[in-house]
Amino acid sequence: MCLDYKTELKNFFADRCLFDEPMDKHTTYRTGGRAEVFVLPKTREDWSFVLKMAKTAQVPLRVLGFGSNILVGSRGIGGIVCSTEEMNNVICEGDTVRAEAGAPLDKACELSADAGLAGMEKLSGIPGSIGGAVYMNAGAFGQETFDCLDYFDVIDREGRPATLLKQDLNYSYRHVEGIEKFIILSAAFTLQKGDFKTLVQTRNTVLHKRREKQPLEYPSAGSVFKRPEGDYASRLIDDTGLRGLTVGGAKVSEKHAGFIVNFNHATPEDIKNLMAQVRQKVKEKHGVELELEQILWGEFN
Ligand SMILES: Cc1cc2nc3c(=O)[nH]c(=O)nc-3n(C[C@H](O)[C@H](O)[C@H](O)COP(=O)(O)OP(=O)(O)OC[C@H]3O[C@@H](n4cnc5c(N)ncnc54)[C@H](O)[C@@H]3O)c2cc1C
To answer: For the domain that residue 39 is a member of, what is the CATH number?
Structure first.
């Protein structure tokens, strides 16, 4: 008898395979439709199996970190979403931090600062996973993930493992060329010796600035748009008079105009429509086409 791919996944992953999983639970916008199949792989063998199933059944497979840069449409996501949540080891050895893809980036920042290692302290408070940070080349306060990244281990969509060295990749602001071909399993960061007290102080200052400047009291996915050349998206949005602009339960944050917040049970479509309005109005006033930093998944109404 030939089992369908969902049954095979359930048999293999047991309680690490869920059906019709609500994505509001797994994204920081706290809204979104359901994932048809939601799997929590831990090992390379798990990944090989789920990749094989996706290929055989010809369904899409998406990799989810902490969902802090993703908006999922109300009609949900067909195929398989694999969460890296259960791959969360992070260690500091000598001048190197090694972390699995589902470890919190902030945990790596904390460990390195506590060990007197410099290079990641300004990434403190970014609420993503290591895999998401590498994928996005996340950054803040003049520091980027790729600054101190040494190499990362991946598998490709055929299940073939590889180690990618930073110097072999083209990367830039919030962009890594060709990264979508890979599933990131772990990463290693080489850091510089620094002064423990100064590093911890910098980390605390950064965390304080985030609380002060960002609307952390509401669900969001951080900056909606990339920084345009020579300017700031938030400045353009503010200058267009869009602070507080609302669609349904979604609002351009009054505290930080670069953020859209889910202030009152926003639907994904409220947020998406607000994004479109902001882009259009900024284009009309400033002639600048804002580029989305956030990623849209699944079907929208
Ligand atoms: C309050 C707030 C503040 C923020 N501040 C910042 C900031 O200062 N700087 C900044 O850069 N970002 C910021 N962000 C955005 C977000 O935290 C980053 O983009 C982060 O790197 C996303 O990581 P994630 O694990 O949540 O990835 P997700 O949102 O889950 O995924 C993002 C993309 O990465 C891919 N991905 C994730 N993990 C893997 C993996 N293991 N293998 C392959 N692909 C993978 C996904 O498929 C998706 O395409 C902020 C967000 C919030 C909510």
So the answer is: 3.30.43.10
Q: Write out the residue range of the structural domain in which residue 237 sits.
A: 233-297
The pTM of the full predicted model, rounded to 2 decimals, is 0.97
Instruction: Say whether both 134 and 244 belong to one domain.
Output: no
Q: What is the pLDDT of residues 18-34, one digit of tens each?
A: 999 999 999 999 999 99
- 225 falls within a domain: no
Mean pLDDT across the stretch 242-246? Answer: 98
Note whether 196 and 97 are same-domain residues.
Answer: yes
| Residue 223 is a catalytic residue | yes
Testing ligand 1's pocket by substitution, the residue of 63, 68, 157 carrying the most ligand atoms inside 8 A of its CB is 68
Contacts 24+ apart (CB under 8 A), 202-208: 202/113, 202/121, 202/122, 203/109, 203/110, 203/113, 203/121, 203/124, 206/121, 206/122, 206/124, 206/125, 206/140, 206/141, 207/124, 207/125
pLDDT digits (tens, 9 = 90+) for 124-158: 999 999 999 999 999 999 999 999 999 999 999 99
